[in-house]
Design a protein that fits this description.
By secondary structure, the protein is mainly α. The chain has five helices and no strands. The protein has a single domain, classed as Cytochrome c/b562 (Four Helix Bundle (Hemerythrin (Met), subunit A), Up-down Bundle), CATH 1.20.120. Helix 2 runs antiparallel to helix 3 and helix 3 runs antiparallel to helix 4. The structure holds heme C. The site of heme C has 24 residues, from helix 2, helix 3, helix 4 and helix 5.
Length: 153
């Protein structure tokens, strides 16, 4: 019985849109996990945004490093949101429309990953103006998703 359930759970994990019902505890954990992914993204982009606005000196090495981290974290966004928590009273800024239009949500995560990878490449090349522009482009990708899929402040 146990093994059967484990097999079902593993299978669900690799399927595109598992219809596995979550219990309250699983929904809470899934919510905390996806928020953690985005907290790490936010933590890494903080100094980059400040550099793009000229508030702190541009540091190409730091930009390349953080952009690479953001690309990695962005690759986790679709997995992190796979668990549909709409039926649960979790504290979240995730809008229900995420699970109604998951393909678009995934696409926007993919765009963000691609922009972060591009930024890492540009930063490694050392061109400061191009680096700042690529930081701006990455932040636009964050906004594109937040506009439609995250609760407004
Ligand atoms: C594909 C959609 C998507 C993309 C792309 C995206 N976000 Fe988000 N982000 C969300 C959603 C949805 C939430 C709300 C999650 C929740 O509360 O459960 C969120 C929440 C956050 C949070 C708050 C995390 C917390 O709970 O403390 C931060 C910070 C954040 N995003 C930063 C960013 C940055 C920076 C980028 C771009 C590099 C980015 N996000 C790209 C969808 C996205």
């Amino acid at each position: 019985m146990m093994y059967r359930r484990l097999a079902v759970a593993l299978l669900a994990g690799i399927m595109a849109a598992p219809a596995v019902a979550l219990d309250a505890e699983q929904a809470q954990k899934a919510t905390e996990t996806r928020q953690s992914v985005l907290k790490v993204v936010g933590w890494n982009i903080g100094p980059l945004g400040a550099m793009a606005r000229g508030l702190v000196p541009y540091d190409a090495e730091l930009v390349a490093r953080n952009a690479q981290r953001i690309a990695w974290m962005a690759s986790m966004i679709p997995d992190a949101f796979r668990a549909d928590t709409r039926a649960h009273a979790v504290t979240t800024e995730a809008l229900p429309v995420i699970w109604e239009n998951y393909a678009r949500f995934e696409e926007l995560a993919g765009n963000t990953q691609a922009s972060a990878e591009k930024l890492a490449e540009i930063a490694a090349g050392g061109d400061e103006a191009a680096g700042k522009q690529a930081i701006g482009a990455l932040i636009e990708d964050c906004r594109a998703c937040h506009d439609d899929f995250r609760l407004k402040d």
